Inverse folding.
Protein backbone atom coordinates (compact mmCIF):
# COMPACT_ATOMS: atom_id res chain seq x y z
CA UNK A 1 0.00 0.00 0.00
CA UNK A 2 1.48 3.38 -0.98
CA UNK A 3 2.30 5.96 1.69
CA UNK A 4 3.65 9.49 1.87
CA UNK A 5 4.64 11.81 4.70
CA UNK A 6 2.62 14.86 5.68
CA UNK A 7 4.43 18.13 6.51
CA UNK A 8 4.17 17.39 10.25
CA UNK A 9 5.70 13.93 9.82
CA UNK A 10 2.47 11.93 9.96
CA UNK A 11 2.58 8.90 7.65
CA UNK A 12 -0.49 8.82 5.41
CA UNK A 13 -1.77 5.97 3.24
CA UNK A 14 -3.77 5.89 0.06
CA UNK A 15 -5.25 3.17 -2.12
CA UNK A 16 -5.13 2.91 -5.92
CA UNK A 17 -7.85 1.31 -8.04
CA UNK A 18 -8.01 1.16 -11.83
CA UNK A 19 -5.85 2.66 -14.54
CA UNK A 20 -5.64 5.90 -16.46
CA UNK A 21 -5.53 9.53 -15.39
CA UNK A 22 -5.46 9.85 -11.58
CA UNK A 23 -8.53 11.11 -9.74
CA UNK A 24 -7.78 12.12 -6.14
CA UNK A 25 -10.68 11.03 -3.92
CA UNK A 26 -11.31 12.49 -0.46
CA UNK A 27 -13.61 10.52 1.89
CA UNK A 28 -16.26 12.05 4.12
CA UNK A 29 -17.66 11.00 7.46
CA UNK A 30 -16.13 13.26 8.60
CA UNK A 31 -12.96 11.28 9.21
CA UNK A 32 -14.07 7.94 7.79
CA UNK A 33 -11.51 5.70 6.12
CA UNK A 34 -11.72 5.62 2.34
CA UNK A 35 -12.76 1.94 2.15
CA UNK A 36 -16.46 2.84 2.03
CA UNK A 37 -15.95 4.56 -1.33
CA UNK A 38 -15.10 1.21 -2.92
CA UNK A 39 -14.52 1.73 -6.63
CA UNK A 40 -17.22 4.43 -6.73
CA UNK A 41 -19.66 2.23 -8.58
CA UNK A 42 -17.18 1.30 -11.29
CA UNK A 43 -15.65 4.72 -11.88
CA UNK A 44 -12.29 2.94 -11.63
CA UNK A 45 -13.00 1.58 -15.12
CA UNK A 46 -12.60 5.13 -16.43
CA UNK A 47 -10.13 6.84 -14.12
CA UNK A 48 -7.40 5.66 -11.77
CA UNK A 49 -8.85 6.30 -8.33
CA UNK A 50 -6.44 7.41 -5.61
CA UNK A 51 -8.33 7.14 -2.33
CA UNK A 52 -6.81 8.89 0.67
CA UNK A 53 -7.10 7.63 4.23
CA UNK A 54 -7.15 10.93 6.12
CA UNK A 55 -4.85 11.17 9.12
CA UNK A 56 -5.96 8.88 11.94
CA UNK A 57 -8.17 6.73 9.69
CA UNK A 58 -7.70 3.46 7.85
CA UNK A 59 -4.04 2.68 7.24
CA UNK A 60 -2.86 6.23 7.98
CA UNK A 61 -1.06 7.02 11.23
CA UNK A 62 -2.54 8.86 14.18
CA UNK A 63 -0.94 12.32 14.37
CA UNK A 64 1.03 13.40 17.42
CA UNK A 65 -1.11 16.56 17.64
CA UNK A 66 -4.87 15.86 17.62
CA UNK A 67 -5.65 19.48 16.73
CA UNK A 68 -4.39 18.66 13.22
CA UNK A 69 -7.66 16.81 12.62
CA UNK A 70 -9.26 20.20 12.04
CA UNK A 71 -10.26 20.49 8.40
CA UNK A 72 -8.13 23.49 7.46
CA UNK A 73 -5.07 21.86 9.02
CA UNK A 74 -5.41 18.89 6.67
CA UNK A 75 -5.18 20.99 3.52
CA UNK A 76 -1.42 20.62 3.32
CA UNK A 77 -1.82 16.84 3.61
CA UNK A 78 -3.58 16.98 0.26
CA UNK A 79 -0.85 19.18 -1.20
CA UNK A 80 1.84 16.79 0.06
CA UNK A 81 -0.09 13.96 -1.60
CA UNK A 82 -0.14 15.83 -4.92
CA UNK A 83 3.60 16.44 -4.68
CA UNK A 84 4.20 12.79 -3.85
CA UNK A 85 2.29 11.76 -6.99
CA UNK A 86 4.31 14.21 -9.09
CA UNK A 87 1.22 15.84 -10.59
CA UNK A 88 1.25 19.47 -11.64
CA UNK A 89 -2.55 19.81 -11.54
CA UNK A 90 -5.12 17.42 -10.13
CA UNK A 91 -8.69 16.27 -10.55
CA UNK A 92 -10.24 16.11 -7.08
CA UNK A 93 -13.43 14.28 -6.07
CA UNK A 94 -14.84 14.77 -2.59
CA UNK A 95 -17.76 13.12 -0.84
CA UNK A 96 -19.90 14.48 1.99
CA UNK A 97 -17.87 16.21 4.75
CA UNK A 98 -14.72 16.23 2.64
CA UNK A 99 -16.38 18.78 0.40
CA UNK A 100 -15.06 21.29 2.92
CA UNK A 101 -11.53 19.93 2.63
CA UNK A 102 -11.65 20.10 -1.18
CA UNK A 103 -12.97 23.67 -1.04
CA UNK A 104 -10.20 24.77 1.31
CA UNK A 105 -7.57 23.01 -0.79
CA UNK A 106 -8.83 24.70 -3.95
CA UNK A 107 -8.82 28.08 -2.20
CA UNK A 108 -5.26 27.67 -0.91
CA UNK A 109 -3.84 26.05 -4.05
CA UNK A 110 -6.11 27.17 -6.92
CA UNK A 111 -3.30 26.80 -9.47
CA UNK A 112 -3.14 23.07 -8.69
CA UNK A 113 -6.78 22.33 -9.56
CA UNK A 114 -7.81 20.95 -12.95
CA UNK A 115 -11.35 19.86 -12.02
CA UNK A 116 -13.45 19.57 -8.87
CA UNK A 117 -16.22 17.01 -8.35
CA UNK A 118 -18.44 17.36 -5.29
CA UNK A 119 -20.59 14.31 -4.49
CA UNK A 120 -23.41 15.00 -2.00
CA UNK A 121 -20.88 17.29 -0.37
CA UNK A 122 -20.91 19.82 2.46
CA UNK A 123 -19.94 23.45 1.93
CA UNK A 124 -19.51 24.96 5.39
CA UNK A 125 -16.25 26.39 4.07
CA UNK A 126 -18.45 28.64 1.92
CA UNK A 127 -20.84 29.50 4.74
CA UNK A 128 -23.53 27.14 3.43
CA UNK A 129 -24.95 24.39 5.62
CA UNK A 130 -28.04 22.20 5.85
CA UNK A 131 -31.08 23.18 7.92
CA UNK A 132 -33.41 21.05 9.97
CA UNK A 133 -36.24 21.98 7.63
CA UNK A 134 -34.29 20.70 4.64
CA UNK A 135 -33.61 17.44 6.46
CA UNK A 136 -37.33 17.09 7.21
CA UNK A 137 -38.23 17.78 3.59
CA UNK A 138 -35.95 14.97 2.47
CA UNK A 139 -37.32 12.60 5.10
CA UNK A 140 -40.89 13.22 3.97
CA UNK A 141 -39.97 12.03 0.48
CA UNK A 142 -39.56 8.54 1.96
CA UNK A 143 -43.00 8.36 3.61
CA UNK A 144 -44.07 5.37 1.49
CA UNK A 145 -41.10 3.22 2.59
CA UNK A 146 -41.93 0.29 4.93
CA UNK A 147 -39.26 1.42 7.40
CA UNK A 148 -40.42 5.05 7.51
CA UNK A 149 -42.62 4.81 10.62
CA UNK A 150 -39.87 3.38 12.81
CA UNK A 151 -37.09 5.40 11.24
CA UNK A 152 -38.57 8.90 11.10
CA UNK A 153 -38.34 9.73 14.81
CA UNK A 154 -34.84 8.26 14.88
CA UNK A 155 -33.81 10.36 11.88
CA UNK A 156 -35.03 13.52 13.62
CA UNK A 157 -33.05 12.50 16.73
CA UNK A 158 -29.85 12.24 14.68
CA UNK A 159 -30.02 15.96 13.86
CA UNK A 160 -31.18 17.04 17.30
CA UNK A 161 -27.97 15.70 18.86
CA UNK A 162 -29.82 13.33 21.18
CA UNK A 163 -29.52 10.14 19.15
CA UNK A 164 -28.85 6.76 20.74
CA UNK A 165 -27.03 3.93 18.99
CA UNK A 166 -30.35 2.18 18.39
CA UNK A 167 -31.91 5.30 16.91
CA UNK A 168 -28.92 5.88 14.65
CA UNK A 169 -29.29 2.37 13.24
CA UNK A 170 -33.01 2.91 12.67
CA UNK A 171 -32.27 6.13 10.76
CA UNK A 172 -29.72 4.60 8.38
CA UNK A 173 -32.20 3.81 5.54
CA UNK A 174 -32.71 7.54 4.96
CA UNK A 175 -29.11 7.81 3.72
CA UNK A 176 -29.64 5.29 0.90
CA UNK A 177 -31.86 5.40 -2.14
CA UNK A 178 -32.58 1.67 -1.74
CA UNK A 179 -32.42 -0.07 1.62
CA UNK A 180 -31.27 -3.42 0.25
CA UNK A 181 -28.56 -5.90 1.20
CA UNK A 182 -25.80 -3.83 -0.37
CA UNK A 183 -26.92 -0.73 1.54
CA UNK A 184 -27.13 -2.66 4.82
CA UNK A 185 -23.61 -4.04 4.40
CA UNK A 186 -22.28 -0.60 3.50
CA UNK A 187 -23.95 1.01 6.52
CA UNK A 188 -22.63 -1.68 8.87
CA UNK A 189 -19.04 -0.71 8.10
CA UNK A 190 -19.42 2.90 9.29
CA UNK A 191 -18.43 2.59 12.94
CA UNK A 192 -15.31 0.48 12.37
CA UNK A 193 -14.11 2.82 9.61
CA UNK A 194 -14.64 6.09 11.51
CA UNK A 195 -12.45 7.99 13.97
CA UNK A 196 -14.99 9.67 16.25
CA UNK A 197 -12.56 11.87 18.16
CA UNK A 198 -11.11 13.12 14.88
CA UNK A 199 -14.62 13.76 13.58
CA UNK A 200 -15.36 15.90 16.63
CA UNK A 201 -12.33 18.09 15.83
CA UNK A 202 -12.90 18.34 12.08
CA UNK A 203 -15.17 21.40 11.99
CA UNK A 204 -14.26 23.09 15.28
CA UNK A 205 -13.96 26.86 15.65
CA UNK A 206 -11.50 28.42 13.25
CA UNK A 207 -11.73 25.71 10.60
CA UNK A 208 -13.60 27.88 8.11
CA UNK A 209 -13.42 31.49 6.92
CA UNK A 210 -16.22 31.65 4.32
CA UNK A 211 -15.75 35.18 2.98
CA UNK A 212 -12.13 34.87 1.79
CA UNK A 213 -12.74 31.32 0.58
CA UNK A 214 -15.67 32.47 -1.53
CA UNK A 215 -13.60 35.31 -2.93
CA UNK A 216 -10.86 33.01 -4.18
CA UNK A 217 -13.22 30.38 -5.57
CA UNK A 218 -15.31 32.97 -7.39
CA UNK A 219 -12.31 33.38 -9.68
CA UNK A 220 -11.49 29.66 -10.01
CA UNK A 221 -11.66 29.14 -13.77
CA UNK A 222 -11.89 25.33 -13.86
CA UNK A 223 -14.75 22.88 -14.49
CA UNK A 224 -16.73 22.01 -11.36
CA UNK A 225 -19.40 19.32 -10.95
CA UNK A 226 -21.81 19.52 -8.00
CA UNK A 227 -23.73 16.24 -7.79
CA UNK A 228 -26.71 15.92 -5.45
CA UNK A 229 -29.06 13.05 -4.70
CA UNK A 230 -32.76 13.65 -5.30
CA UNK A 231 -33.60 12.09 -1.89
CA UNK A 232 -30.61 13.33 0.11
CA UNK A 233 -31.11 15.64 3.08
CA UNK A 234 -27.57 16.95 3.05
CA UNK A 235 -27.39 18.65 0.68
CA UNK A 236 -30.85 19.01 -0.81
CA UNK A 237 -30.67 19.71 -4.56
CA UNK A 238 -31.53 23.38 -4.02
CA UNK A 239 -28.58 23.74 -1.65
CA UNK A 240 -26.27 22.06 -4.16
CA UNK A 241 -27.53 24.54 -6.76
CA UNK A 242 -26.63 27.40 -4.42
CA UNK A 243 -23.10 26.01 -4.12
CA UNK A 244 -22.76 25.61 -7.89
CA UNK A 245 -23.66 29.26 -8.46
CA UNK A 246 -20.57 30.35 -6.53
CA UNK A 247 -18.21 28.96 -9.20
CA UNK A 248 -17.77 30.51 -12.65
CA UNK A 249 -17.79 27.14 -14.47
CA UNK A 250 -19.91 24.81 -12.36
CA UNK A 251 -22.64 22.43 -13.44
CA UNK A 252 -25.29 20.86 -11.23
CA UNK A 253 -26.39 17.23 -11.56
CA UNK A 254 -29.25 15.79 -9.51
CA UNK A 255 -29.31 11.99 -9.57
CA UNK A 256 -32.88 10.60 -9.53
CA UNK A 257 -33.69 8.16 -6.74
CA UNK A 258 -30.35 8.70 -5.03
CA UNK A 259 -29.62 9.69 -1.46
CA UNK A 260 -26.22 10.23 0.18
CA UNK A 261 -24.30 7.42 -1.58
CA UNK A 262 -25.33 7.76 -5.25
CA UNK A 263 -22.70 5.33 -6.56
CA UNK A 264 -24.52 2.58 -4.61
CA UNK A 265 -28.06 3.69 -5.48
CA UNK A 266 -27.52 3.64 -9.26
CA UNK A 267 -23.88 2.92 -10.21
CA UNK A 268 -24.42 3.25 -13.94
CA UNK A 269 -26.08 6.64 -13.70
CA UNK A 270 -23.45 7.90 -11.27
CA UNK A 271 -20.49 6.71 -13.34
CA UNK A 272 -22.01 8.00 -16.55
CA UNK A 273 -22.46 11.45 -15.04
CA UNK A 274 -19.04 11.74 -13.43
CA UNK A 275 -17.07 10.11 -16.26
CA UNK A 276 -18.73 12.35 -18.82
CA UNK A 277 -17.87 15.41 -16.75
CA UNK A 278 -14.26 14.28 -16.48
CA UNK A 279 -14.06 13.91 -20.24
CA UNK A 280 -14.18 10.12 -20.41
CA UNK A 281 -17.87 9.56 -20.99
CA UNK A 282 -19.63 6.21 -21.34
CA UNK A 283 -22.96 5.59 -23.04
CA UNK A 284 -25.86 7.26 -21.28
CA UNK A 285 -28.17 5.13 -19.17
CA UNK A 286 -31.34 3.92 -20.90
CA UNK A 287 -34.64 2.87 -19.33
CA UNK A 288 -34.07 -0.82 -20.14
CA UNK A 289 -30.38 -0.89 -19.18
Amino acid sequence: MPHFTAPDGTRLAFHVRGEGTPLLCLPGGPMRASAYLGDLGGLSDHRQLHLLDLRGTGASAIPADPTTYRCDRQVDDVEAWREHLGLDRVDVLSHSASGDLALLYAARYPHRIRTLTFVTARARALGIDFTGQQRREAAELRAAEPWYGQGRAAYDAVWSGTVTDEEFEAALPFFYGRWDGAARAHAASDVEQSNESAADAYATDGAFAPAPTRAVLAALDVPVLVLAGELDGGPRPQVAAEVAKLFPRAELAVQPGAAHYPWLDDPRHFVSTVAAFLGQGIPERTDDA
In short: The chain has one domain: 3-127+194-277. Residues 281-289 have pLDDT under 50 and may be disordered. Residues 3-127+194-277 form a domain with the Rossmann fold fold (CATH 3.40.50.1820).
